[in-house]
Amino acid sequence: MQFDFGQNWAEFSDHALTSERVGQARTDFLRLLEGIPMLGRSILDIGFGQGLSLLTAASLGAKVVGCDINPKCGDVVRRNRKFFPNIADSEIPVVIGSILDEATVRTLQEQGPASGYDIVHSWGVLHHTGDMRQAIANAASLVKPGGYFVVALYNRHWSSQLWLAVKWLYVKSPRIVQKLLVYGLYPVIWFAKLLVTGANPWRKERGMDFFYDVVDWVGGYPYEYASIDEVKEIVGSMGFECLRAVAAQVPTGCNEFLFKKPV
Ligand SMILES: C[S@@+](CC[C@H](N)C(=O)[O-])C[C@H]1O[C@@H](n2cnc3c(N)ncnc32)[C@H](O)[C@@H]1O
Asked: Ligand 1, residues 3, 11, 70, 125: which to mutate, most atoms within 8 A of Cβ?
């Protein structure tokens, strides 16, 4: 059973997405990909969700392809094009399917250049597939020699097992219990984030919104996690070089990685 990310992204887009947040998402996307030219490059965004990275890359002149398992995300990304005036009328190619599914991987190969994509980007996704290692392997296989693999994955922490239990309970529970979990944990997460970061938890990065993030954190199942060293080891064993690893702001957040595939 999987959390309905598409529904959460639809509600986030309808009620919380603003031009200011789109600008913030763009700034953080460019920071993560700093030094990598985008104009004319092929970019695959796996698990594009609300589509902010996918649409930012397209608006910067990249040749994009998106993939997400949740069909609602396809509708959301179409609607969110309005925030990107230079591509508002363009069709953004998306493949609805799982990165674990061989047929989906084949379709993604066919949609991109024969040698693979210049950049494969997947932020906060591969740990939600139910088989993180296989998902990493499938995503990495789509990078061309000399290309980049940009990935963000949940960090390993002593509380990760507790989070796993909370998320499992959420997806197994009726709607009323799901709401109680979200509203009950909201203040706990708010104070924990304040204590750990010393910053206002409502001030978010990447154009996100605290409430919809809490829904995602409480319900986002399947859920796996790995330390920075574990991810470097997994992706390194596929021949990639780690150019950058940025630790999560909070210990259970997502570590960000920039890997390069040898030529
Ligand atoms: C936490 S959201 C991240 C969205 C976006 N990448 C971002 O940075 O905000 C995870 C996304 O991964 C998608 N997803 C989950 N499992 C997937 C799978 N097996 N294949 C492709 N996408 C998947 C979900 O539908 C959801 O949109």
From this structure: 125
